[in-house]
Amino acid sequence: MLRIALCDDDKEQRAILSALLRDYLRRPGAPQARLWTFSSGLELLSAVEDKGGFDLYILDVIMPEMSGIQLGKKLRGMGSGGAIVYLSFSREYALDSYEAQAFSYLLRPVQAEDLYQVLDRAVEAMEKHRTACIAVKTKDGSRLLRLDEIQYVELVRRKARYYLSGGEQVESVTLRVPFREAVSALMEDPRFFLCGSSFVVNLYYVIALENGCFLMDGGARLAWARGQAPEARQRWSGYWLDAAREEDL
Description:
- The chain is about 35% helix and about 30% strand.
- The protein has helices spanning about 10-25, 40-50, 70-75, 110-130, 180, 185, 230-245, and strands spanning about 1-5, 35-40, 55-60, 85-90, 105, 135-140, 140-145, 150-155, 160-165, 170, 190-195, 200, 205-210, 215, 220-225.
- A five-stranded parallel sheet has the order 2-1-3-4-5, sandwiched between helices. The protein has a five-stranded antiparallel sheet with strand order 10-9-8-12-11.
- Helix 2 runs parallel beside helix 3 (about 70-75).
- The relative contact order is 0.10.
């Protein structure tokens, strides 16, 4: 079931968006979902700490105490990978929304059709990410891994070790081909970046770049190869910018 969080300090605007979202979820073919509404960023952050993250966040940009942009950054810092859709009466903050890896940015007053198109694309993107898989040969047989659960892959003693978002590690049999060739299926997906000669990183799980390495959701730090810094920065920022352009940000 899709978990949706709507955060807006304005009661009237919150009611309008809630009605639009509920109408969307009643349409034929709409995903099963549950909607939570929040009147402040602090209230939403508290819910994420208590109940876990949401699949989709719809956030007002201008709110007292904590702006929607600040809220989005805090959610990313907490490891929440849900899609973020920002709402604002101005385009002024559209570029700032990139810093929170926004999925889309809608101008108010929000038109139902515009919102529904963004929601359709968000649901389609989430479903695509959830269902794409690769097969990994292990000592116990072939194992299907969803791409969206792979945080990174490490070359360890001529084996590929897959680190999954739930904390599990899956190790392949001894590789008979170079590491780059062994992970070539991953490299066809724009989420993945070959970091040096021993790591493949899922850019979706990178929460920051610092001191020559990727800081991953969960705390791991993966150093990139010497001279790879410009490409690493470009790929990480470009991944989110390209996603935003695809959704007509």
